[in-house]
Write a sequence for this structure.
């Protein structure tokens, strides 16, 4: 009997890659749908020279998680499209607030002047942090990012800087998202030094932090190149879907069976070294399961035998996102150059943000933008019965594009995707919740490892590293 992987998204395929690298034996990855990649989906229109991404579009090369992904990308020999930090799309971040597009400051000069939508110079928020007493929450207790930032930097920063940023990261509401999980180092700065700025200053001179930097084991020439050329982010020549596609090819060429159209319906365990996965027509016994499934999916599979585990998995909430890709023949439509803009939730608009794809990458004379809508507020805007049609969703997106960007013409081509339960929400207490889930698995000695976006981080780098860590742990059992 052998190990099996559930899910052929990027985390399941990465788990497969690391299992192969460590154990070198054949095994199977079971994927419910007819394709690999999960939420990563690129659509090329080669004749017209543009592409759409309906899920992720860029990866950051920074830190250990970034270096780890670049090592994988290098092994797969994928052609990279880097964006250097000097590029407008890396430097210019915008908000749409108070009926205008506001360029966020990207130099120290911006700290001393009043930059809309803020009513005071941003240095005042820093003074607020320096002069605010230590944490009012009990030691090590979690709190929402919104309340943390409001306490330390004031309400305006919480509303106009942090809340839209959380929309950009996980389409979530900063009033619910855990500061301890998503901004752990900042949270720890307050816990240790009594303030975020104080912590940042101390840690600059603190050997422990510098030593941590040196600990990153760089196996990748690509990572060295990324550091030297100061990449801020990157994509791949044929869009990000090239990553899971190439990974699948790499694995199958090395005798790993990637079985599509294979939805697992039930998972039961029989002792510490036996699991039985049930598919439509067959039961498959294995000695260990690495699950990369969304937590709510795994909850379904384990409900009959482990209802308590299932309930804990279900307590990780997910949100729905509407992604509308729009293409226009004219490349002079965007009046601002940058990555795109975010819309603070206080503006009470159905849109989370608009990405300027054709500013980030060459789109051969086309303007390409992507409108993200819904997220935490999906039900409020789109929850009616019957659900809105694709045309209705596209109309809402276009209305917002007219209002925010002043683009009056109709797009030449568009695509609408409603991504149900696509982003897990790391709400207050997430770290403890995940610990509880993993402790349950350990205490019942279940031959089960968990990776994927539900647990250890929401970005592509995080899920690949999560897969690697889980497979590293396999060596010890
Ligand atoms: C709109 C959007 C934009 C994003 N933008 C970025 C970005 O720019 N940069 C970034 O780094 N990250 C971004 N992310 C996050 C990133 O895409 C995800 O973290 C990552 O793709 C999650 O991969 P995964 O393998 O963990 O999960 P998934 O992609 O959900 O894969 C899980 C797989 O399991 C399969 N499955 C489910 N149930 C079963 C079953 N019962 N049996 C067998 N198989 C099953 C599914 O079909 C799926 O293929 C974005 C996400 C979204 C939704």
């Amino acid at each position: 009997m052998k190990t099996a992987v559930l899910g052929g998204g990027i985390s399941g395929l990465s788990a497969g890659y690391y299992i192969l690298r460590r154990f070198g034996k054949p095994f199977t990855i079971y994927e419910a749908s007819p394709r690999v990649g999960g939420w990563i989906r690129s659509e090329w229109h080669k004749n017209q020279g543009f592409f759409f991404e309906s899920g992720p579009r860029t990866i950051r090369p920074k830190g250990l998680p970034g270096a780890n992904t670049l090592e994988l990308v290098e092994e797969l020999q994928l052609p990279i499209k880097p964006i250097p930090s000097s590029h407008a799309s890396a430097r210019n971040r915008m908000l749409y607030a108070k009926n205008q597009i506001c360029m966020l400051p990207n130099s120290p000069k911006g700290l001393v002047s009043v930059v809309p939508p803020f009513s005071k110079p941003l240095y005042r928020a820093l003074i607020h942090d320096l002069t605010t007493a230590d944490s009012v929450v009990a030691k090590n207790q979690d709190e929402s990012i919104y309340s943390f930032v409001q306490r330390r930097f004031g309400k305006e920063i919480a509303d106009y800087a942090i809340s839209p940023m959380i929309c950009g990261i996980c389409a979530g509401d900063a009033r619910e998202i855990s500061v301890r999980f998503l901004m752990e180092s900042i949270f720890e700065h307050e816990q240790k030094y009594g303030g975020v700025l104080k912590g940042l200053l101390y840690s600059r001179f603190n050997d422990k932090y510098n030593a941590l930097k040196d600990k990153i084991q760089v196996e990748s020439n690509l990572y060295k190149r990324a550091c030297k050329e100061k990449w801020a982010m990157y994509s791949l020549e044929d869009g990000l879907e090239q990553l899971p596609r190439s990974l699948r090819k790499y694995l199958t060429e090395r005798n790993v069976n990637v079985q599509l159209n294979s939805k697992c319906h039930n998972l039961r365990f029989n002792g510490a070294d036996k699991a039985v996965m049930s598919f439509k027509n067959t039961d498959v016994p294995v000695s260990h399961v690495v699950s990369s499934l969304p937590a709510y999916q795994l909850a379904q599979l384990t409900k009959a035998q482990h209802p308590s585990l299932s309930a804990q998995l279900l307590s990780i909430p997910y949100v729905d996102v509407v992604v509308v890709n729009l293409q226009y023949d004219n490349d002079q439509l965007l009046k601002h150059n940058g990555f795109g803009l975010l819309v603070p939730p206080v503006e009470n608009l159905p849109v989370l943000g608009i990405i300027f794809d054709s500013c980030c990458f060459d789109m051969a004379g086309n303007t390409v933008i992507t409108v993200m809508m819904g997220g935490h507020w999906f039900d409020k805007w789109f929850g009616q019965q019957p659900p809105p049609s694709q045309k209705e969703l596209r109309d809402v997106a276009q209305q917002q594009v007219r209002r925010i960007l002043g683009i009056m013409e109709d797009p030449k081509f568009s695509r609408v995707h409603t991504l149900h339960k696509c982003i897990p929400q790391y709400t207050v207490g997430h770290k403890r919740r995940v610990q509880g889930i993993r402790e349950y698995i350990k205490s019942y000695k279940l031959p089960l490892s968990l990776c994927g976006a539900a647990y250890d981080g929401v970005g592509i780098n995080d899920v690949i590293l999560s897969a690697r860590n889980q497979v590293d742990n396999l060596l010890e059992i």
Notes: Residues 6-12, 30-33, 38-40, 55-59, 263-264, 292-294, 297, 321, 323, 419, 422-423, 452-453, 458-460, 463 surround flavin-adenine dinucleotide (CB under 6 Å). Residues 155-170 form the longest helix (16 residues). The longest strand covers residues 413-424.
